[in-house]
Amino acid sequence: MGNAAVGGHGDRGWLPGQVKAADDGRHSGDFGVKLGGYPAGDRVVFHGTGHSWEAVEESVVLSIRWPSIPGYAVPEQAQQ
Question: What predicted TM-score, i.e. pTM, was given to this entire model?
Answer without folding.
Answer: 0.61
